[in-house]
Write a structure and sequence with these properties.
Layout (H helix, E strand, L loop, with lengths): L2 E5 L54 H6 L3 E5 L8 H5 L5 E4 L9 H6 L5 E4 L9 H6 L3 E4 L5 H16 L2 H9 L5 H5 L9 E5 L3 H10 L5 E5 L6 H6 L2 E3 L3 H7 L2 E4 L13 H6 L4 E5 L8 H9 L3 E6 L30 H20 L8 E4 L2 E2 L1 H6 L4
Parallel strand pairs: 1-2, 1-3, 3-4, 4-5, 6-7, 6-9, 7-8, 9-10, 10-11
Antiparallel strand pairs: 5-12, 12-13
Helix pairs in contact: 5-8
Bound molecules: nicotinamide-adenine-dinucleotide.
């Protein structure tokens, strides 16, 4: 019998279950790169479209796990030495966590987790796990690759439009009973004709490029592995050999690389200084890619025209985190990858990974980040341990 420790965000303050706005969601069976959506053998323990990412939703896993005789413990209490997570960790064989409410598996916590064999990310982005320590202790790290890529890409497109067109402040004026047209438009531009560049054109970055193409922007990218020439041609992409060259050339910068030691604080005062005045920055990848106070300085000086994203450090962000109140920000809490549509897919993928793990069959290669003591699968393509 295994203990499965699952850390999820708290239920809605209005109670669980919420009143749903819609009765159904579309069924997505495959992604743009041909990868199939999760295909668990057993039935989902929930109806697609239900809120399963919060504590009472339990990712729909309870029936499946208890039928096999395993114990499922679900908590949102994850931070500090007295948290339920830290107290229960030494007995856990499997830890499940979502990036939106990450259960940080630091090397100190991993040292205490003597029975831990599988750290499963219900979602995408496993930087909340110390991957080097996981590799050293032969813990498998897996995530549900592809499950929320389009959810995030849509959020990025929304943020590009809302920042450049000055949507949020204009909405605020309307809500407050105002009609101050000049105040709304004094910072409002069209995106048509602007130069947009993504750092990282993997599953999400490429989906963003494809979605922005019809808006007639000039599209740029940089990443470790150059895209297929046919894709570059189809989207009229300009490739840059490095981040520095890209940020000098564009009006809107999108961050879409994973967080690992050498991408931490990639965006600092020096990087912002390379950008032209009036650049917008979108970051729905990871908060720590950006140096917290450097972005505040760049906005306050007027060098950056706006910054939007949904990722912070730490998460949840403290009340006094300066990104909550810095000028010209379009921040949301970490929500882009946990729409109800995304939850259905990553909960199904979590079940699929657990079925493989307990059934003794291989976990899909593309779901692996660390396995057998080293980076594997998507981890080997997208992360570095240094
Ligand atoms: P992916 O693995 O498909 O793509 C990442 C790409 O980044 C890869 O193509 C890789 O070659 C490239 N890359 C890695 N390091 C690089 C570097 N230093 N310079 C240039 N390119 C580099 O991943 P994805 O599914 O597109 O997701 C990207 C990231 O987005 C995730 O790692 C995660 O941190 C974040 N994410 C956020 C949310 C959210 O809810 N906000 C949801 C999903 C993913």
């Amino acid at each position: 019998m295994a203990k499965i420790l699952c850390v999820l965000y708290p239920d809605p303050v209005t109670g669980y279950p919420p009143t749903y706005a819609r009765d159904e969601i579309p069924t997505i069976t495959a992604y743009a790169n041909g990868q199939t959506a999760p295909t668990p053998k057993g039935s989902l323990g929930f109806k697609p479209g239900e809120l399963v990412g919060s504590v009472s939703g339990e990712l729909g896993l309870r029936n499946y796990l208890e039928k096999l005789g395993h114990e499922l413990i679900v908590t949102s209490d994850k931070d500090g030495p007295n948290s339920e997570f830290e107290k229960l960790l030494p007995d856990a064989e499997v830890v499940i966590s979502q990036p939106f409410w990450p259960a940080y598996l630091t090397k100190e916590r991993i040292a205490k987790a003597k029975k831990l064999k599988l750290a499963l990310t219900a979602g995408i982005g496993s930087d909340h796990v110390d991957l080097e320590a996981a590799a050293r202790t032969h813990i498998t790290v897996a995530e549900v690759t592809g499950s929320n890529s389009i959810s995030v890409a849509e959020h990025v497109v929304m943020m590009v439009l809302s920042l450049v067109r000055n949507y949020l402040p204009s909405h605020e004026i309307a809500v407050r009973g105002g009609w101050k047209i000049a105040d709304c438009v004094a910072r409002s531009y069209d995106i048509e004709g602007l130069h947009f560049g993504t750092i990282g054109a993997g599953r999400i970055g490429l989906a963003v490029l494809r979605r922005l193409k019809p808006f007639d922007l000039h599209l740029h990218y940089t990443q470790r592995h150059r895209l297929d020439p046919a894709i570059e041609k189809e989207l009229s992409l300009t490739f840059h050999p490095d981040v520095e060259s890209l940020v000098r050339a564009v009006d809107i910068v999108n961050l879409q690389v994973p967080l690992y030691p050498s991408t931490e604080h990639l965006f600092d005062d020096k990087m912002f200084a390379r950008m032209k005045r009036g650049t917008y920055v979108i970051n729905c990848a990871r908060g720590k890619l950006v140096e917290r106070d450097a972005v505040v300085r760049a906005l306050e000086s007027g060098h950056l025209a706006g910054y939007a994203g949904d990722v912070w450090f730490p998460e949840p962000a403290p009340q006094d985190h300066p990104w909550r109140t810095m000028p010209f920000n379009g921040m949301t809490p970490h929500i882009s990858g946990t729409s109800l549509s995304a939850q259905t897919r990553y909960a199904a993928g979590t079940l699929e990974i657990l079925e493989s793990y307990f059934g003794g069959t291989p976990i899909r290669e593309e779901y692996l980040i660390v396995d057998g003591g080293r980076l594997a699968g998507t981890g080997a393509k997208s992360y570095k341990l240094t």
